Amino acid sequence: MQFPKLTPLQSRIVVSLAASLIVIVFYLSLSSPHFAYAVETDSIAPKDPNRPPLLGLQDRLGFTERYSWDDDEVEQNYEPEFAELERGISELAPKSQNLNNNTPGKRSIQVGDGPHYWVFQNETLWGTQAPGIKRLRSPLVDITDWGTFQNSTEQQNSPEGTRGVYVSLSVCDQPSSTSGTPNDAPPQLELYISFSNPEPGPGNSNYSVPVDAGFGSSTLNASAAIYFAVLAPPSSNFNGKYSYELAVSIDAPYASYVDTTFLNVLDSDTNATLLETNVTANVTGPLNNTEYQQWMDGTPPFSLFALKNDSAIWGIHKSFCGLKNHAQIKGDPTDQQPSSVNMSMTDRAGGRPKEQFYIQNLNGSSAYLAIPAIDGTSNQSGGGAVGGGGLLWAPTSFRTKSDYNCRVIFNLPFCSEVAYAVPSNQHQAFADLVKWYDGEAQPLYVNFSNSLQQIPCNATSSAQYSLARNCTDCASAYRNWLCAVLIPRCEDFSSPSKLFKPRNIDKSFINGTKPSADLNPIFTHGNNSISYLTSLSSRYLPIDAFASPGPYKEVLPCADMCYELVRSCPASLGFACPLLGKGLELSYGKPDPSNKTNVTCNWLGDPDKMSLGVRRGQSLVLLTIACATALFVGYLA
């Protein structure tokens, strides 16, 4: 068939139409939904906080291989077929982990591993501060470096344009020894801080924070993001992991350590010890004192950790989470589970609130460390709480007895100042001892009270028997003296102190043996034969019939207790103390000013009165000498 012959104009029109049709068909082919289907997906995979970035990328790329993932690291358990691609993916994962205010970052790190990088972002630094914390019912007394641990946290004075930041590193677990000496402490973790370098380390950081016994802290001023690095030094003698908590706060230290002791050892027996804190508040009764009632009636605020002195935990004993994980003995007043630590409040020895700890189930003749603590604030602890990481004080050491002839008693209803070991035996129950000793003292006090009622105690001050003392002072002094002489303080017979009085030396120890004849008492003062006779029994004879203790040594009552009784009571009651060289040294002891750590005599009551009594005695002597001198000078004139 012959095509019609077109004119040049018609040819150009046909070509243009054909080209236009081709363009239209091509455009429709690209925009038509009938050629292919695709699932709409997010451009970025949802972030799962429990999976590393690498796993999310693998899912999107369709990889079937997986990593085994724990809290701290990714362990590869396959041989990747796409090594170059794998390296590229891993470079996309962030090297630094974010730290939030008052929320610790928790990780584990192998010996010789690291660094772990962390960052406290600028927006977190300049976030809203929390209100002041309340750790206790009222500020503690007698703590010179309490600082930011008071009830209300006051921000430190920071230069303009900066904010104060509190940093703490707590080691919660540590590697085990491979050297055959399990009590060795591993090397400490290293903490580096920088204001500009995202990867700080030795030689390229602004700060290196010392870490000691599992704890390191620093306070600094910052104006922008802060970068941290945690490293674990290499060691051939240890194997395993450290776990740690790195916390940053703009409010107050998350975890804290006070490098002063806060505990006093009252006494120990073979299987138990009694401790108490320093005075917590400078308040005394009466009971209408609100602050006093808050301390005495509320839940005891302090917890306690105890451990053997040779324990491997010594490497983390300044870390709250370390002690919480590994201390052999733990006492928490909020824990409802049975514990070997009994905690309660007391106002013994001065009438001011203190917390006491009675630790049981200890080993005999063993050295221990006791560490008081506060778990968080008064109402919360842990991550997210200001100061939620715990507060520790320096450890206090104590040692248990070995002879089973002494038993600690306390909380006696009448002799309430008694809180020490008394003559006993291993079969005597605590409650029976408390009831018997207290019951022996009460009837004797009733006789004294009847005599005191004959004194005009309610007369005007000028008509009373003394301008310095009254009947209340007399009654208190007599009660303390009576309880001290009737309830002797007991020490092991093996104690080397020559200040203690041997008792029951003809009795047998628990193993059936008797004291050596060479250990018969020999005193510097007094008649040795009298000393020997008084050492054959207890001071108060009914003790031997009831408690049947073996050989022990008595910590004699302080002579100041006798002097205090004579000073406080009317002369008509006839109290007098024996003289030195004529029986005083056999019945009473005296404090040793050079011995600040060990008990040298037994004192009941306010400890301030013991030193006060000595000073008053010295003052009376000086006053007498001054008066005599004045009279003599007047006579000469």
From TrEMBL:
* Region Disordered: start-end pairs: 328-347
Presence of keyword Nuclease: no
Q: Name one GO biological process term.
A: calcium ion import across plasma membrane
Q: Which UniProt keywords apply?
A: Membrane, Transmembrane, Transmembrane helix
TM segment ranges: 619-636
Q: Where is the signal peptide?
A: none
Where does this protein have compositionally biased stretches of type Polar residues? 334-345
Which GO molecular function annotations are given, in alphabetical order? calcium channel activity
Protein's recorded name: Stretch-activated cation channel Mid1
